Amino acid sequence: MAIIKTDAILLKKTQLRETSLIIDFFTEESGKIKGVLKGVRCPEPQFGALYEVFTLDRIVFYEKKNKDLFIISQCELIDFFPELRESLEKLGYASYFTELIDLAVESGEKNKAIFKLLLDSLRILSEPGSAKRLTRVFEIKLLKELGLMPGLKSCVSCGKEVATGKAGFSIIGGGILCRDCFKSDPKVRPILAGTLNFIEHVSVTPMDKISRIKVSTDVGRELERVMADFLSFHINRKFKSIEFLQEVGAL
Ligand SMILES: [Zn+2]
Description:
alpha+beta; CATH 2.40.50.140; de novo design (two linked rop proteins); 3-stranded antiparallel beta sheet; 8 strands; elongated; binds zinc ion
């Protein structure tokens, strides 16, 4: 029975009994895991602060024989990200990050790069700056880590190189199409060169350098639509946090 100690970001929690919680974590060492935390007897305010969504925790867990659930034997709070809880907009974006990871990543697939992406994104979101641009960066980098990066260099149907400004974008095809291949996707859409450049640039640039990239309003709007459609088609889910962001007027 392996006992694992790791940093972990809390994705989701469900009350099991008065003193037990089922928690989904994205862990640094073991990817996404679901575990039960028993014997939670903290007073209510502390309880709330300890086991909240998108806190960074240090946990110890082990596998119980013939059970899908891990047993979480320790959970120590490292960072509560208080700034993310003081604004509805930031709360919505942070929830979107954790929800997207919960939906897109299979349980038990170790991926330190995704753990770092989520942690870096929560930290950057805590600071002043554009939450929308950060969200596009998060989406693009997550697609890359999942092996779902859109094809941007050449036509995804015939492989021909496509000149800037002459490409269409196919959500279903997973990238750009040349004019000869537009017929392969009736829903092919025009796409700005600036949008393709942003996606390409973000995919190869470290997180700490990306804050300097400027995005025009047109490119920003197009990126938002393209990424939303691309993610919902390729991950095939509807995100509750997107609805929440729309309700609070952040989108
Ligand atoms: Zn083609």
